[in-house]
């Protein structure tokens, strides 16, 4: 984290990946939606410590999934050499805290991930924290 005298702290994706689950949730809850994601965004997957096989799942996910390409009200995921799994992007309400967030929804755009809904907020310029929800849960 970089401290700034003229505003809120700045976070990097690598620094955030070292934070505890509770710290990440706290940072997310205190953030505003910020700017809508645009262009290619690199990702870093972090599972909650209580998740089954959290460590191995993180390693596999981070080795295969490279990020998301955002363009207007849509996105497409980038996996090692392949782009697939489209989603819709819109402003909306967080399922975590009811506050504004950017919603990434795959319900009407993907057969594979049609039960997935992500939400994200910008925590530093160009750096976002996102949450993934499965509708079946």
Write the layout of secondary structure elements.
Blueprint: H1 13-17, H2 21-30, E1 39-42, H3 54-64, E2 65-71, E3 74-79, E4 82-93, E5 100-105, E6 116-124, E7 127-134
Antiparallel strand pairs: 1-2, 2-3, 3-4, 4-5, 5-6, 6-7
Average of the residue pLDDT scores:
91
Beta-sheet strand percentage?
Answer: 35-45%
User: Which sequence of SSEs, written as H and E, runs from N to C?
Assistant: HHEHEEEEEE
How many DSSP-defined strands?
7
Sequence of strands across the biggest β-sheet: 1-2-3-4-5-6-7
Structural class by secondary-structure content: alpha+beta
Query: Number of helical segments?
Result: 3
What level of helicity do the residues show? 10-25%
Overall shape: it is globular
- Weakly predicted, low-confidence segments: 1-5
User: What gyration radius follows from the Cα positions, in whole Å?
Assistant: 15 Å
Q: Describe the main β-sheet briefly.
A: 7 strands, antiparallel
């Amino acid at each position: 984290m970089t401290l700034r005298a003229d505003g809120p702290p700045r976070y990097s994706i690598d620094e955030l990946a070292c934070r505890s689950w509770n710290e990440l949730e706290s940072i997310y809850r205190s953030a505003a939606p910020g700017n809508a994601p645009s262009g290619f965004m690199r990702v870093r997957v972090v599972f909650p410590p209580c998740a089954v096989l959290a460590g191995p799942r993180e390693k596999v996910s981070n080795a295969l999934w490279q990020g998301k390409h955002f363009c207007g009200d849509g996105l497409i995921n980038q996996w090692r050499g392949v782009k697939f799994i489209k989603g819709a992007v819109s402003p909306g309400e967080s399922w975590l805290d009811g506050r504004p967030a950017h919603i990434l929804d795959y319900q009407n755009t993907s057969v594979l991930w049609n039960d997935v809904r992500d939400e994200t907020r910008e925590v530093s310029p160009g750096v976002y924290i996102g949450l993934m929800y499965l509708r079946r849960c």
